[in-house]
Amino acid sequence: MKYLIDIIEDLSTNSNVVRFIIPSDPIPLSRHKYSGHHMYDPQKREKRDVGYFMLKTKPKRMLVGCIFMKITTYHAMPMKWSQGKKDLLAGTFRPIRPDKSNLCKFYEDVMQDIGVFRDDAQIVASWEEKLYDDGNGSRVEIFLKEISNEARKANTGQTI
Predict the structure, then answer these.
(1) Is 67 exposed, middle or buried (0-12, 13-18, 19+ CB in 10 A)?
(2) Packing angle between helix 2-11 and helix 149-156, nearest 10 degrees?
(3) Are 138 and 25 in contact (CB under 8 A)?
(4) What does 42-103 look like in DSSP terms, one character per residue?
(5) CA distance 152 to 2
(6) H or E element: which one contains 34?
(7) Cα dihedral across residues 110, 24, 100, 10: positive or negative
(8) How far apart (Å, rounded) are the C-alpha atoms in residues 134 and 93?
């Protein structure tokens, strides 16, 4: 686990990190739907729109090795909450739906579609957080970094 902490600390200072900040409400993945005998993706339009936005900061080369992904989603608080409650919960964990796995999968699919990496199976380690808005608005922050087995082996003492 220590190697993951080292990678997370390195995300803010390393220039070899791919960063995406999407200023919108986080979108969870919806499963494909069936209509008659045809299957379709109900989120095709949302994936396209988020993909166009991400293309602006897409890296010049595709990530080809093992990837570490850190994704943080910031969700708006209900309008009916008092300002005191909003201030108290700003930036804290959000333990309600949607699940973080569906949030991550949506953005993994978009990044694969626009060519950030070949296959989301390349993501071998990740850190996901679901938080309430911290005062900077609803958004999704994604950091990607290519990692090697040597980094894990050096920090765990394991041989691979």
Answers:
(1) buried
(2) 130
(3) yes
(4) TTHHHHHHHHHHHHTT--SS-B-SEEEEEEEEEEPPPTTS-HHHHHHHTTSB--SSSPHHHH
(5) 9
(6) strand 33-35
(7) positive
(8) 11
Q: What are the backbone dihedrals phi and psi of residue 18, each rounded to the nearest 5 degrees, phi first? A: -90, 125
CA distances (Å), origin 42, targets 17, 39, 47, 73: 31, 10, 10, 22
- The domain spans of the chain are 2-156
Tell me: the pLDDT tens digits for 78-100?
999 999 999 999 999 999 999 99
Superfamily of domain 2-156 in CATH is Holliday junction resolvase RusA (3.30.1330.70)
160 vs 59, more confident: 59
Residue 155: pLDDT above 80?
no
- The length of the chain in residues reads 160
